[in-house]
Specification:
By secondary structure, the protein is of the alpha+beta class. Helices cover 26% and strands 24% of the residues. The protein contains twelve helices and 20 strands.
C-alpha cells in the first residue's frame, strides 16, 4: 500500500506534531512511512528507524511476559498474589488476601497508586510492594474497571522477579525481547541510543508551535507499565504475536495459542465504552468496529504517543508513533484513510448527544476525586457541567486556567459527551454511574475511575 505523504504532513502541521511514523502489517507484509523531525531544536528528520516511547503499550508486552509463566505452570491467573508475594499487604485485608494477577492485568484491583517514592534503582518494584501497606481502595475489589497507570503492572513485574530470580529489565529482555528479535527495544531510558531517539514535545498554542517536553522520560516505577522505547517494526512484531497465535515474526513461539485466547477473551466491561473500547482484556482493549472485533493498545508519555490497532479477522495491524500530542482525532483521521484504502471496517465515531433525554441532574452532582485529580459535577440552568481542577504549576506551564469547565451533553442516563472550547482539545466521553441512594458513586473518563467523595 501507499501512504498519502502530503496528507500526513498537512495533519502534522494542523495538529502541531513534529513527526510521525506509520506502519501497516497486511497480507504478511510491513509498510512503513516516516515524516517530520525528531526534535524541533535540531531539525533532524525522523526515519522508520527512529525510536519512540511506547508508553502504556508496554503493558501489553508485560502481559505477554507474564503469560509465559502461566504457560509454564509457575503461577495461575487466579492465584492470590500473596501466595507468591507473602509480604504483599494493602489497607484492605480482604484485598491483601484475595487480589489476583487477572485483576492486575484487567485493572479491576482498585488499589490506589499510593506507593510513595520508590526511587530509581533496579529494586524499585520490591520497594513499591514494601510501601503499599497503607494503600486504600479506590473501589472494592472487582467492582468496576479503573485504569492503574503504574501499580498493577509493577506488581506483575515483581511477581515475575520472584518467580524468575532476576531483575525485571534483565528477565524481560532475555525471556521476551531477545526471543522476539526486538533488538531496537529498550526497557530503561539509560539504554536508549540518544542518536536514534525522538524527543517528546508539548503544544501550548499553534502560534508558538511544539516545544520540547520538560519531562524527557517516565520514572522507573512506570517501567513495566510505560517505559518501553522502540521502533515501528518492533511494535508491529507485537501485533504479529497476536495475529499468529503467539509466534513472533522470526518464527519463535513466545506464548501458547491458549495464552493468546485467554488474553483476548478474558474481558471486563469498561464503564465509558466510547473513547477507547467497551471491554478490557488481559493487556489489551477490545473494540467493536461495526460488529468486527479489534484489539487496541495505546500509550502516552509526556510528549510522545503510540497507537496500535490489531484486526484479527483480516490479519492486519496499523500503528502510529508520534513525538507530540496526544490527539485522538489526529490518529483517527490517519487510520481512517488507511482502513478505507484497505477496504477494512472504519473506526466508530463518538456518539451524538440525545437532546430528548430527561435527567434528574441532582443524581450526578458532586465531587469525584483521586489524589491529584478532582472533578466537580454541578447543575446550572437545567444543564450539567464538569469542572476539572488543574495542578497550578501544570496550568501555568501550559498557559491554562487553574480550573477547566465543560458542559456534559447526555448520550444516555449514564454517559455524556464532553466537548471542549479549546481547539487543542478533542471531545471526550464521561460515564457517571452506579447509583445508590439516588446518587452516582463513580465518574469514569479516559479509562480512569474517580469515586464520589
Amino acid at each position: 500500500m501507499q501512504f498519502d505523504s502530503t496528507r500526513i504532513r498537512e495533519l502534522l502541521s494542523e495538529y502541531g506534531i513534529p513527526s510521525a511514523v506509520l506502519g501497516v502489517l497486511h497480507d504478511g507484509q510491513i509498510t512503513e512511512f516516516a515524516t517530520g523531525v525528531k526534535d524541533v531544536t535540531t531539525g533532524e528528520p525522523a526515519t522508520t528507524g527512529t525510536v519512540y516511547q511506547f508508553g502504556s503499550i508496554t503493558k501489553t508486552f508485560t502481559a505477554l511476559a507474564f503469560m509465559q509463566f502461566v504457560d509454564a505452570g509457575r503461577i495461575g491467573l487466579d492465584d492470590p498474589i500473596r501466595e507468591h508475594l507473602p509480604e504483599f499487604s494493602v489497607a484492605d485485608a480482604e484485598v491483601s488476601a484475595r487480589v489476583t494477577p487477572r485483576q492486575l492485568l484487567n485493572h479491576t484491583h482498585g488499589i490506589e497508586e499510593a506507593f510513595g517514592d520508590p526511587g530509581e534503582e533496579p529494586d524499585v518494584y520490591a520497594r513499591m510492594v514494601a510501601e503499599l501497606a497503607g494503600a486504600p481502595q479506590v473501589f472494592p475489589l472487582g467492582e468496576t474497571h479503573g485504569y492503574s497507570t503504574a501499580l498493577g503492572y509493577a506488581l506483575l513485574a515483581r511477581l515475575m522477579e520472584v518467580l524468575d530470580g532476576r531483575p525485571w529489565d534483565e528477565l524481560v529482555r532475555d525471556r521476551l525481547l531477545t526471543p522476539m528479535g526486538l533488538s531496537d527495544t529498550s526497557t530503561w531510558h539509560e539504554d536508549v541510543d540518544p542518536a536514534r531517539a525522538a524527543t517528546g514535545h508539548l503544544l501550548r498554542s499553534l502560534d508558538e508551535g511544539p516545544i520540547v517536553s520538560p519531562v524527557p522520560y517516565l520514572l522507573r516505577c512506570y517501567g513495566p507499565g510505560g517505559n518501553f522505547t522502540g521502533t515501528m517494526r518492533d511494535l508491529l512484531a507485537l501485533a504479529h504475536v497476536f495475529l499468529h497465535d503467539g509466534v513472533a515474526p522470526n518464527g519463535v513461539r513466545i506464548v501458547s495459542p491458549a495464552a493468546i485466547r485467554e488474553m483476548t477473551t478474558s474481558r471486563v466491561p469498561v464503564p465509558d465504552p466510547y473513547l477507547f473500547g467497551p471491554e478490557w482484556a488481559l493487556g489489551l482493549i477490545i473494540c467493536d468496529w461495526s460488529g468486527h472485533t479489534v484489539y487496541a493498545t495505546d500509550g502516552s508519555t509526556i510528549g510522545q504517543n503510540a497507537r496500535l490497532r490489531i484486526l484479527p479477522e483480516s490479519g492486519t495491524a496499523i500503528a502510529l508513533l508520534t513525538n507530540g500530542g496526544p490527539r485522538e482525532t489526529f490518529y483517527q483521521k490517519v487510520f481512517q484513510e488507511i482502513l478505507a484504502d484497505l477496504g477494512l471496517p472504519a473506526l466508530p465515531p463518538l456518539p451524538k448527544p440525545d437532546p430528548g433525554l430527561v435527567l434528574e441532574l441532582a443524581r450526578y452532582e458532586g465531587v469525584y476525586a483521586r489524589p491529584g485529580t478532582e472533578y466537580v459535577v454541578h447543575a446550572e440552568a437545567d444543564r450539567l457541567f464538569l469542572t476539572l481542577a488543574l495542578d497550578p504549576m501544570h496550568a501555568r506551564f501550559l498557559g491554562k486556567p487553574d480550573h477547566l469547565r465543560y458542559e456534559l451533553l447526555p448520550i444516555s442516563q449514564t454517559h455524556f459527551l464532553m466537548p471542549s472550547a479549546d481547539p487543542l482539545e478533542d471531545p471526550q466521553t464521561v460515564a457517571i454511574y452506579d447509583f445508590q441512594d439516588g446518587r452516582a458513586r463513580y465518574l469514569h473518563t479516559n479509562c480512569r475511575v474517580h469515586p464520589r467523595t
